[in-house]
Write the structure tokens for this entry.
Amino acid sequence: MENNLVLIVEDEPAIARILEAYLLRDGYRTVQAADGETAIDHHALLKPDIVLLDARIPKLDGFGVLARLRQTSSTPVIMVTALADDLDRLSGLHLGADDYIVKPFNPQEVVARVKAVLRRTMGERNDSVRRFRDIEVDFGSYTVVVNKDGKRIPLSLTLSEFRILAHMIRHPTQAFGRAEILDACLPDSDALVRTVDTHISNLRRKLEELGQTGFFTAVRGIGYRFSDPQ
């Protein structure tokens, strides 16, 4: 993981310097942005391997930055927040963030989270393409395509939704518990188990809109499976 570039988006210089010092000590390269617009520009120009993104920053807040990044990029993002309402938003939707950290934090914990997220996401990038019926998942490009009526139709997913789909399609008839899905797809975070239901519901709806029915079925007393055995 040495030499991975970390974009630190933080408007408090003292906090940014501390994060930079700990990351540099562990062999990472760093670049800083003190506002959301600069963060967008740095991301487009420098292509960082991961983003540490404070929720409350000037010009464009962290949620706005995350939404913009997710329109075109699957770069891992760890959100940093100090406010309860931000935590509620992240817990309920996750908005495509890979993880989040609550202030005040231990800088060593931040470095550990960065390592964990990079280890997980880089492993996913090394996977190949998997197809199940009319659904095709490219683990390297973080894209999903549905083959319908001779056309390849992209399926628009948040990063959290993609992770759940990618995890479950590897073992399509296996029943997964909610906690197991959360641990496998959103580890090292404080997300609530019930958020899995929201992600699954959204995935099922998006697939059904493209004529793909019968996926993400509930398994009583356990959780969900991607597809029932035929």
In short: The mean pLDDT is 83.
